[in-house]
């Protein structure tokens, strides 16, 4: 459904009806804040009319332990999927997974939530606005194609009885066509607007926890800004495979520097290409300390960013570059990271700015740190061997040739000159 359709009110109605008849209901969402919105709506619903007579005691409003209990034995609880411990151990008659499309880990439902419906033969509802081409779309397609046990609906914001024509038109103002199609019309963008169309096919590389003797590796590093994450992408130069990812946040820059330096040392003294757009000082410090290897900085501009992103895109589409595969035998934390990588690549898209310029990046509220680290690692793999790819487009009357990316004069970093 499109935004402002009334998904929260609909979810609360279904939850209260089920619990009033004695059913157990879980309200799940990717964050506690989203789950809390649904829970608060349920509280308003049961305390605002005669249904309140069925409520046993007073609803517990404490986050992490929110519960409404009914005289019939029914209950409603709110849970966040970012802590899997709270998702196991109980059986449910109804699961409402709000804004499920925003959940980056496709295994959250199948591995943790779906089994909890088995003993009570419960059902699930996934009210959400689409979020690109991800696991939620795969789930929705099951209902669309008539898979047993699944039903799917697609409703725009305008289809809601709560939405006036004037409000609908006001939502259109200032939105790009892609944003309007996804956020208001509730359309899956598929490949439309998506930058990386071959990323799923490129996910065939094997994850490695440690380097192999004699192999040559390089690192691409995206440094965290504010609420973002620092991500290190490690690539095998010979096989053109991303073999390892490191992701962390809420660290001081000095602590981040130590993690980056240690990763380089561990992975056979891997050369480093680091995003220095707003972190020149960090790049300088790393170059001073990691004296055993090559440390280069990369500044993202309106010209350099499209070059390295398109290079990454081309590498995946042609099979030149491979990224880690989603393999069920991997540890849960590694699986989550790999699936987050796929989610970021799927959500990364082209957008038209109000001034008319075409730009690329993650949608509002989403991260692209892994994408940037992959792009920098791939770029560094060419710099490490002294050459970069030549990308030729034959779409016009004459081939357009692009050589290199992020080039320029040598830059002094620490004790070395690049």
Q: Can you tell me the overall shape?
A: elongated
CATH-scheme architecture of the largest domain: 2-Layer Sandwich
- Annotation field: number of helices: 12
Helical amount:
25-40%
Major sheet summary line: 5 strands, mixed
Look at the structure and give the CATH class of the largest domain.
Alpha Beta
Question: What is the helix/strand order?
Answer: HEHEEEHEHHHHEEEEHEHEHEHEEHEEEE
CATH topology category name of the largest domain: Nucleotidyltransferase, domain 5
Oligomer: single chain
The whole-number mean of residue pLDDT values reads 82
Classify the beta-strand content into a percent band. Answer: 15-25%
Tally of distinct domains: 2
Strand order of the largest sheet: 2-3-1-4-5
The number of distinct β-strands equals: 18
- Poorly predicted sequence stretches spanning 5 or more consecutive residues: 389-418
How far is the N terminus from the C terminus? 52 Å
Give the class from helix and strand content and strand pairing.
alpha/beta
Rg over C-alpha atoms, rounded to the nearest angstrom: 24 Å
């Amino acid at each position: 459904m499109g935004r402002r359709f009334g998904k929260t009110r609909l979810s609360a109605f279904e939850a209260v009806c089920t619990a009033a008849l004695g059913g157990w209901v879980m309200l799940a969402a990717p964050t506690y804040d989203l789950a809390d919105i649904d829970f608060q709506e349920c509280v308003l619903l049961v305390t605002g009319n005669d249904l309140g007579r069925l409520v046993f005691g007073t609803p517990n409003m404490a986050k992490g332990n929110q519960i409404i209990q009914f005289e019939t034995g029914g209950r409603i609880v709110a849970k966040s999927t970012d802590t899997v411990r709270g998702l196991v151990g109980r059986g449910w008659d109804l699961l409402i997974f709000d804004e499920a499309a925003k959940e980056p880990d496709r295994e959250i439902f199948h591995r943790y939530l779906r089994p909890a419906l088995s003993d009570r033969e419960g059902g699930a509802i996934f009210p959400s606005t689409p979020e690109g081409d991800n696991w939620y779309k795969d789930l929705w397609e099951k209902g669309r194609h008539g898979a047993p046990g699944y039903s799917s609906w697609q409703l725009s914001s305008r289809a809601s009885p709560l939405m006036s024509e004037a409000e609908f038109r006001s939502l259109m103002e200032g939105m790009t066509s892609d944003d309007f199609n996804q956020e208001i019309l509730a359309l899956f963008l598929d490949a439309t607007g998506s930058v990386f169309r071959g990323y799923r096919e490129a996910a065939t590389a094997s994850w490695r926890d440690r380097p192999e003797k004699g192999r040559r590796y390089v690192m691409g590093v995206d440094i965290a800004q504010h609420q973002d994450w620092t991500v290190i992408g490690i690539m095998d130069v010979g096989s053109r495979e991303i073999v390892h990812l490191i992701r962390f946040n809420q660290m001081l820059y000095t602590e981040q520097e130590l993690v980056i330096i240690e990763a380089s040392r561990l992975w056979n003294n891997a050369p480093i290409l680091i995003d220095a757009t707003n972190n020149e000082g960090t790049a300088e410090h790393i170059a001073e300390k990691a004296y055993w290897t090559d440390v280069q900085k990369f500044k993202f501009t309106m010209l350099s960013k499209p070059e390295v992103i398109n290079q990454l895109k081309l590498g995946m589409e042609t099979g030149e570059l491979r990224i880690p595969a989603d393999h069920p035998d991997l540890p849960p934390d590694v699986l989550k990271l790999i699936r987050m990588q796929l989610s970021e690549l799927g959500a990364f898209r082209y957008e038209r700015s109000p001034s008319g310029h075409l730009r690329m990046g993650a949608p509002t509220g989403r991260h692209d740190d892994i994408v940037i680290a992959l792009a920098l690692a791939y770029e560094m793999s060419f710099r490490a061997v002294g050459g970069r790819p030549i990308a030729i487009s034959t779409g016009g009357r004459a081939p357009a040739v692009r050589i290199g990316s992020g080039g320029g004069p040598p830059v002094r970093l620490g004790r070395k000159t690049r």
